[in-house]
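Supplementary Methods S3. Input chains for the assembly prediction are listed below.
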Amino acid sequence: MGTTLEGALTAGLPPVGDLAHEKERLAAAAEDEGILDVGVGHLDSPIGRLFVAATEEGVVRIGLATESEDELLAELAASVSPRILGAPRRVDPTRRQLDEYFGGGRRSFSVPLDWRLTRGFRREVLEELVAVPYGETTTYSELAAEAGRPRAVRAAGTALATNPIPIIVPCHRVLRSDGSVGGYRGGSDAKRTLLALEGESGTMLASG
Amino acid sequence: MLGGMPDVAFETLVDRHGPVVMRFLIARLGPIDAEDAFQETMLSALRAYPDLREAGAARSWLLRIAERAAHDTGRARRRRPIPVADVPDRPEVGAPEDPSGAWSGVRRLPDKQRTAVVLRVALDLAYREIGEVMGTSPEAARRNVHEGLSTLRDRAGEI
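Predicted structure tokens for the full assembly:
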């Protein structure tokens, strides 16, 4: 008797489908209400799957393929806000511009940036870096000098290594003084791919 | 943790517990009202989330909010005038998504029994967690489940 009733109940319950549509609707409602502190999304690219996070102010974080999504979400929850949702509407302008960049049709980005995940000298270095144009490169020591501390080459290196918004803040355009490619959070192959995309070519890249 | 805020992204919470919350609401309200109640639940939860202190009990917390949303949905529906000439858009006994009409019977149980039966049968929760969601002891949760199920059996016997 008991099994019949509970069996009928269990059998009478339709399975829960994919919640993608519900999540999208939720993110839109949260954004309208002003409680979507961070919207996140993904993008496939020649250097792997990228993670994009944006606050109401602008792009706050780009995660490269080498970074774990769980850690990126935990980092944002701890340092910005735990009110984080997948939000196509919030990240679409950035995804579109990145797509255009990878397709070769875009040389600079116009989406607003939210710099809150970096500060002090690191932020100064990164803000200098935004001025390095597409297809050109600089070195760690030049960048330190431009940020006003020519001897802080290592600190400049740290600023780049902790760049929260790679690609848009083009830390891939910074090479070692000897011309070798140097490190990259997304791996030096990813750095070479980006430089090749921008038409930086030749021996310098091969020697990395 | 920074400033006592939860260190888990709400997105992670939705991925982890969203299906359970949706299953609860489908059992509680039927698939049509469940979608709106799911939105209401998750929006309320997102509003309150930065103040949540016991992130470990997130599932019970979400189900508590879901029960409140389900309760409000039920009340709003009862206030809504029913146009007699129209085809009913509410799942009725024997509707395709509930062929035996068993869940319609659950939805007519007294409040506490109904919620307890849904948490037990649809989600297979332990009495301890049912008590957490409903703000009762595990013993009271067990009693609510048993009384609800025996009411349903009695009714089935009456037919």
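Chain A touches chain B at residues 1-2, 5-6, 8-14, 16, 19, 22-23, 25-26, 29-30, 33, 35, 38, 40, 70, 73-74, 76-79, 81-86 (CB under 8 Å). Confidence is low (pLDDT under 50) at residues 201-208 of chain A.
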